[in-house]
Amino acid sequence: MTSSRQASQVNHPERTDAARPLSADAAIELLLTAASCDRLSPPRSTVAAHRAAAVVRGAIRDLESLQAALTEALVASQDRLLAMKTIAKVDFQGVASDEAIGLLLGRALALTDASAVLLLQADTVVDAAGDASAVEVCAEVARQAIAQGPGELLRTVAGDSAIVGSLDVDITTGWHVAYFRPTDRPFVTTDIPLVEAINSALGVLLAFNETHRREQVAATVAREHELASVLAQSVITDAPPTSATLDIFARTEPASLAGGDFYVFGQTNEAIWFAVGDVAGKGLPAAILMTRAVTTCRATFLSHRGRSVIDAYAQLEDELFDHLDDAGLFVTLVMGFVCEGSGTVSLVNAGHSPVVHVHDGIASAVPASLPPTGIVRHRVPALSTFTLRGDDCLVMGSDGLVEQADPAEAMFGYDRFDALCQRTHALPASRIGDSVFDAVAEFAAGTPASDDSTLVVVKHRGTAS
Fold first, then answer.
1. Which residues lie below 8 Å from residue 352, measured CB to CB, with a gap of 6+?
2. Which fold has domain 90-213?
3. Is 5 in a helix, a strand, or coil?
4. What DSSP string describes 68-120?
5. Helix residue spans in 160-241 (DSSP H)
6. b/e string for 61-93 if b means 16 or more Cβ within 10 A?
7. Any idea what the Cα angle at residue 216 is, between residues 215 and 222, rounded to 5°?
8. Cα–Cα dist 269/306, whole Å
9. DSSP secondary structure code for residue 257 in this structure
10. If DSSP codes are grouped into helix, strand and coil, which group holds residue 177?
């Protein structure tokens, strides 16, 4: 038998907490209770049943919405998977080629059911697939969309009948893709994943193309530099001139394919002319100016048989200054001659080092008497003269030797160079030269050379051991 409190609750359902939400199970239970209770008056029974039914219908709608969302997500996921599988089947054996781009655009046309697909760089159509007659019209729509939002990754335009997006790959900055459909078949949300997958593939392919292009350019430049280096180095005399009284060593090692160091000899009137120089800078520009300097030195030697080193230097400066000034470069240079009979040396030093004269077993630097060639014009240099006797020697190097670094970034240095010349001065010129290169290489301990290395050693042959 029902208690008075229970009867009150059943007979007066409107007194329950109407703001309290009901679960679907509670609503169904309430509906069943209302339908089976013979004490409820028909109107109140109907109200309770309708309320419960509304809650149940709402719960069902929520479930249906959730099911639709899950279905849409599943379809989108399947679209992405299908797109990637389809793109993966494209034969990219011709990767890094325009053909591969065209092939992918054609596949994009079919996958998106588009009437035209355009690939643009900035506002220029690079490639297109689809209706050729509509390309210009489509291109103008794409250009307007790009101008309005050049950095947007993806957006629909023209009443959703077009999708325009930029390719988010650093190496392909400025590239955009535009997809077009007729106005009666606009793009919808489910098309976006497919377009994103295609754009991703296009971005990767364009990145490959750009990398390949840069590698080709770099290879071409490297080859041109290599050829230029071969030509430049070929102007340097392979071996010093032969002499009955003088012992001469000469060697140069460029740090890169094209170097700026040089040495050059000339033989006139029982004297051997020499020049050792270093064009400021590295690479091809330095090598080109080096070849001009070598050619000018040879011409100067031939035209100055009267042994005027100062006049010879003035002529060389006149020939080189304008070229150096135009290029913004300069040349350090030591230039002179040594008499084959007496061993007398006359030279001019234009900012070059190291230049070392070892006399009576003591090494001393031959100082520069004017700035490097190409900096200040028409300066009259001071002439350095001395005679090679006994075990004396003249050693002319380049800064690549004294500035060679070891793994701890310490430099070989001038003191070590002078001491090495002093220690080996009694040896033949070739052995002095080899000792210097060997000592520098041992000091470097595998550290790459940062500059060219050149060395010329002159001794009087009659006293060489």
1. 276, 277, 278, 332, 333, 334, 368, 372, 396
2. Beta-Lactamase (3.30.450)
3. helix
4. HHHHHHHHHHHHHHHHHHHHHTS--TT-SSHHHHHHHHHHHHHHHT-SEEEEE
5. 192-234
6. eeeeeeeeeeeeeeebeebeeebeebbeebebe
7. 85
8. 8
9. S
10. strand
How far is Cα 201 from Cα 165, in angstroms, rounded to an integer?
Answer: 13
The residues that bridge with 83 in the sheet, in sequence order, are none
Cβ-contact 422, 415 below 8 angstroms: no
Is 0.70 surpassed by the pTM of this model?
Answer: no
**For the chain, what's the residue count?**
465
Query: Could you tell me the residue ranges of all domains in the chain?
Result: 4-81, 90-213, 236-463
State the residue for tokens 């593939």: 201
Rounded Cα gap, residues 321 and 260, in angstroms: 16
Q: Does residue 333 contact residue 319 with C-beta atoms inside 8 Å?
A: no
Torsion angle of C-alpha atoms 414, 415, 419, 425, degrees rounded to 10? 30
Write out the two tokens for 117.
């697909």
- Going by their DSSP bridges, the two strands 362-365 and 162-166 should be labelled as unpaired
Cβ atoms of 182 and 162 closer than 8 Å = no
**Phi, psi (5° rounding) for residue 243?**
-150, 145
CATH superfamily of 236-463: PPM-type phosphatase domain (3.60.40.10)
- Using CA atoms, how far apart are residues 190 and 198, in angstroms rounded to an integer? 14
Residue bearing tokens 């077993």: 361
Each of the 465 residues of the chain gets a pLDDT tens digit; together they read 444 444 344 444 444 444 456 666 666 666 666 655 545 455 656 666 667 777 777 778 888 888 877 776 676 666 656 655 656 555 554 444 677 888 888 888 888 889 999 999 888 898 999 988 888 889 999 999 888 887 788 888 888 899 898 886 665 578 899 999 998 889 988 788 888 888 888 887 887 777 777 777 777 776 766 666 666 666 676 678 889 999 999 999 877 655 688 999 998 878 999 999 999 876 677 778 888 899 899 889 988 766 789 999 999 999 999 989 888 899 999 999 999 999 999 999 999 999 999 999 999 999 999 999 999 999 989 999 999 999 999 999 999 999 999 999 999 999 999 999 999 999 999 999 999 999 999 999 999 988 889 999 999 875 444
Q: What is the DSSP letter of 14?
A: G
